[in-house]
Amino acid sequence: MAKLAPLARKLRGWWNGNAAPADAAAPDSDAADSASGGAGKSAMPFSLPLPDGRKAQIWADPRIRVVERVFGMGFLGPNNEAWAEQLIKPMILDSKMSVMHLSAGLGGITRAIHKISGSWVTGYESSPQLAAGAMELSNLASMAKKAPIVGYNPEEPEFKAESCNAIVATKAFAAVNNKQALYNAMFNALRIDGHVMMTEYLRKGSDAAAPAIVEWIKAEPRPIELASAEETGAALKRAGFDMRVMEDVSEDLQRRIAASWAAFARTLAEVGLDRGLVGSLTDELALWMARTRVLESGAVASYRIHAIKNKRKA
Question: CATH code at 255?
Fold first, then answer.
């Protein structure tokens, strides 16, 4: 599986004045290097076209500017409309349905689900700053009514009973302490025969203190309360769900991570990077390297989970 460490080395070389090579993301090592902020040739200005009217405070965050440059406008990870289309395909959504999307981030997936299916999608985001930026993007895309983003507290979720036909949750649970309460609230929010499609990092096995897990959690910006695949399946069943699929999709995620960073690296020679953003770029690359390493270790996997509410809980 591809490694990101060579990209870190080559980014450092580029920052010190070398040309960005065409194979800047070619994998060949496990070593993790840091990009340097040392002296060298001046970088070209960081360029991120912003739609007219973007005013939310989140756009002043240098990390958000870097993340959108790497993964695309409105996306905080290696996802896109094609990936979203495959994720929701088993749910058979249409324009008469309503969908909840948990962990909406900047709303890229939320808006993609609406564009693909025509369904009415509400994104839920725990960060007020991200939620405000995501709603601004939905407004600018003329999707304020069909793909709005609202704030919520995943530790004390409050969803209207039987208000939606489907729930999509993308990496929504790893930082949540009371996961059972959130699963219960999701079950209550679904109508009969409603679908849940989740993607989540889950522990494989019982060793929560595995070195790879410990190092990964240190790199995460939020505390992680990591559950195992078995614990998650049991918790969803307790909530009342009928489990259909729990599939390890780690290899696909690793491919998408590497492809996103490789595409970003190929733009550096043309677009460049402002010195004020190199620290955020280094931090973001280190985070995705940590995520890649823990997936490669086998201690943690990225899972796709499909469940159905086929009856009300007794």
Answer: 3.40.50.150
